[in-house]
Amino acid sequence: MCGRFTLTDPSRLAEEFDLDLPVPELAPRFNAAPSQTIAVIALKRNDAVRRGLALLRWGLVPSWAADPNSGPRPINARADSLEKPTFRDAFRGKRCLIPADGFFEWEKIGGSKRATHFKMRDAKPFAFAGLWEYWTDGVEKLATCCIITTEANELVGTIHNRMPVVLPKSAYSAWLAHPTSPFDLLEMLRPYPAEEMTASPVGPSVNSVKNEGPSCIEVEARLQSL
After folding, report:
1. Which single residue of 88, 160, 166, 182 could bond 105 by disulfide (Cβ 3.0 to 4.6 Å)?
2. What pLDDT does residue 204 have?
3. What is the CATH architecture assignment of 5-224?
């Protein structure tokens, strides 16, 4: 699964994702967590080319839900479960990119858990394959999203058996485009090449969603010596 991620330099998003300007000013994120508001990139309304950035709540609420505050609000959607009612409509017509520059997974070390921060070797921002939804009862309005996951590659697999789908830049346009066939979309939902990623064990700061700052991705001195 993917339950926390980083976006430490959002100033790079306009260039990296070819966004339509102006782009909302975003604060760096060192510990983005479920139920929080996160950045999402999608095609602008009634436009087949231009991309815009919006802030959505992480935790998908289907448009047909009776109550957005009850029932499941999944933060992840398995790549092999996208025809389930919760995800079906979004997969067919509300796909998005969720920008990040790293994500965390946890492993048990003795009686505690230790997080590992995974990122690209070039340290550039990348995109998770995401889904978004819009819910309203005519008064309240709510836009939400989730991250698609797949089997772990060899690097992430040392910690967890699943990982978020990281899309190559060459797939961004096809993932967002409405005419892309379901077969072609599913072909994109593969583990990202392990050789293009790095992994760093980090200290306990990231374990609490209350913490948001550079300490969440700092490697403790005792871990650097291992």
Report:
1. 160
2. 94
3. Alpha-Beta Complex (3.90)
